[in-house]
Amino acid sequence: MPYSFGALKSKRNGSLIITNYKRVIETWWDDEYKEYFYTREPLARYYYAGDYSKQIELKKRLKCKSFDWFMTNVASDVYKHFPKLPPNLFWGEVRNLKSEECLDTGSAQPPHTVHSSYCHSHGGNQLFRLNAKGQLGVGERCIDASTDKMILIHCKLGTVDGPWKYDKKTKRMIHKKLNMCLQQRDDGAIHLTECNDDMTDTRQQWKWRQIRPK
Predict the structure, then answer these.
(1) Which residues, 6 or more positions from 3, have their beta carbon under 8 angstroms from its beta carbon?
(2) 96, 29: one domain
(3) C-alpha pair distances (Å), 23 with each of 16, 86, 142
(4) What are the BP-aspect GO terms (predicted)?
(5) ∠118-21-125 over CA atoms, to 5°?
């Protein structure tokens, strides 16, 4: 844990665990595999991870094989359980245009109801991602929904897809299987309901905003 203490602690601008993951990944993983990590943890791309040039020099000096070689020859069965992640179409905070509040998992463990709260722009429980195959998630967790609530769940093993779509024109979050839209009720609760043709009703309108570490 290189940044848990000492003079460099003040330079760290993100999660200690994710920062240390980044040091390992930037040292050992090939570019293709790095992108899978940053797809899952998009804010980590901007975390300060310190100087790891000595680790890279050691890797070169020892003539270590590439990470792709490892994945092909040692861990070739990984993709059966953990398929390659599609790129994110959107990531960041998801703000409701009516209340100006953001979707929030409350730092809870699945299963847990997703709610809305003040947009703090620090990521964490408000850092959502939507990939090209419709998976909506937060870190290693996924988002499911019923008509009465939005739920944080464990992602189904072996899948990278999902039922979600964001319409940039209407600013709606759409559940494709149910053909319903995400809405914040007047009491603040998040639920799915029939998509409203009234474009002045901003309860169903959401805006994605990428953030940066503070």
Answers:
(1) 9, 11, 12, 16, 19, 20, 50
(2) no
(3) 11, 23, 25
(4) protein O-linked glycosylation
(5) 15
* pLDDT, tens only, 110-160: 999 999 999 999 999 999 999 999 999 999 999 998 888 899 999 998 999
Say how many domains are in the chain: 2
H/E run at residue 16 = helix 16-28
Amino acid, single-letter form, for residue 100? E
Q: Give the predicted TM-score (pTM) of the model.
A: 0.90
Beta strands at 190-193 and 206-209: parallel, antiparallel or unpaired: unpaired
Q: Give 54-93 pLDDT, tens digit per residue.
A: 999 999 999 999 999 999 999 999 998 899 999 999 999 9
CATH number at residue 166: 2.80.10.50
Average pLDDT, the chain: 92
